[in-house]
Amino acid sequence: MKPVMHNLIFPILLVLVASLAHAAGGKVTDPNGTAPDRYVYYPGTEDLAKDEIRLFACGTGLPAARRSQAATCWLVELGNGDKFLFDIGTGSMVNVAALMIPYDFLNKVFLTHLHTDHWGDLSTLWAGGWTAGRTGPLRIWGPSGETPEMGTKYAVDHFLKSFNWDAATRNFVLSPEPGKITVEEFDYKAENAVVYKENGVTIRSIPAIHAGDGPVSFILEYAGLKIVIGGDTFPNKWYIKHATDADIAIHEVFLTPEDLVKLYGQSPGQALGVGTQIHTSPQAFGKVMSTVKPRHAIGYHFFNDENTRYDVFAGVRDTYDGPLSLATDNMVWNITKDNINVRMTVSPDHAWSVAGPKAPPKPPAKGSVPDPISDFIKAGRWNPAEAAQADMIKTFKKEHNMK
Ligand SMILES: [Zn+2]
Ligand SMILES: [Zn+2]
Questions:
Q1: Alpha-carbon torsion angle 360, 59, 234, 322, nearest 10
Q2: From the CA of 107, how far away is ligand 2's center (Å)?
């Protein structure tokens, strides 16, 4: 029988090897000392070198919600300070928020496609970031579709329409600026065309084969490093060509057909269809990786549990024997020319937003935005509540020098 390694043990082993190289995990030399080396990443505690990339898995699961795995979301942090979100799938914002990065630094989102498990938490980033310190519009890059109604611009325009009540009521008390979204829609058929180029960072897109026309994958290049963020796709020729020699190659890998039958209630026919034709089977994922030969391969987009990950791992190992992470939420990779270090993030369940350097823009001047509450509704205010809080308000105003 083939030895099967736990997908968490593998990165931990890598970390161990990396740490042994300098301090064997470090030594605590007195009772008040702190451990010099870390096997985990604590958000906000480590500087990035200029030519370093930190990659987070903020969502690695499926459209059906589960607490342990949100749907697709990758956060890329660069040594120049730039940060990019690639997809923002349902539930992923809790993992993003736990990194306690000011919302002004989380204003660039690249969408691979418009399934909810890849952009379902846009509402949370949009409104949550608006109330918690983002000072300007969100910027979104996403693919066109075969027709305008199947493209990113249409989706975001109508997203804003569906949240009209939300925006209209916030606009009365908050600056409308952070509630705006700019969209840069690019041709989904373009092969390796530049969709973003600023500040030493280039992001290109390639087409993907998934569910309908429109989906893409992204290639980010910075400081001589190349990271490929694969969206949902059956293995495709564009990925093979342009992901070759990537430092990090992320690609979906799906549950085995056997597990889809056993655990997902699918018929054998459905399981083969979903697991080998719409998505990428473990063997096909392995073949992709042994062909493009990245420094490190990352597979995701399956429920990563004790009773699934060894089956996925064994399938991948049929066709690929290189460096591999089978990602689950909160895994983090530090990438430099010399080293790729894999750890788990340890972040708080009770994170608060952290203010950035810019002060939030001023709310609109009184009278400039129509009051969204009518006199009829206002007349329903229960006055004893006002009387009950009067003393507290008086004290608060005094303490804060308010009139
Ligand atoms: Zn999809
Ligand atoms: Zn998906």
A1: 120
A2: 22
